[in-house]
Amino acid sequence: MTRSSGFLLLLLAGCAAQAPTPAGPERVSTVALPPTPDGMIEAGTLAVRTRVEPRVANVLLPLDSAWAALPDVYAALGLTGAGVMDEAARQFGVGPVVLPRRLNNTPLSRFVDCGSTQFMANADSYAVRLQVSTQLVAEGTAATRVLTVVEGTARSREMSGNPVTCTSTGELERRIARQLHRAP
Q: 45, 46, 60, 88: least CB-packed within 10 angstroms?
């Protein structure tokens, strides 16, 4: 066995030992379909199913300590109104809430991508409705896996229309994990 194949086997064994990552919640959106001008297709609706996968990080903090610190982490990041979503599953979060153009003096476009106009990112000018949830899972006795889902939509403040879907940039999830890592 070569040295590199031995390393690959160790890497695969380490990955196999981890507990599976819980899948994110399934969302169902309905899209209205107009009829075609030639009349070949009638008007209708289409159900679109999506599943947002959580961003995963590990922190060197026992589960109970991470769980106790999570409310302070959310508050420090400006995610007010957060609370326990599921005590048994160790899930904590906020939303959906409509946020102003910034979160703790940071433009929302740093955290979510909601598309853009010619002049600026939609997240920095639209009304952004955001939901953030974090689930904690024990990784032995001294570490915790942090699974965070950030979901959002944005709607123009000046014009009517359908909201646009926002996708996470990963920055908010990284900040949650970093703040937990620094927790006492």
A: 88
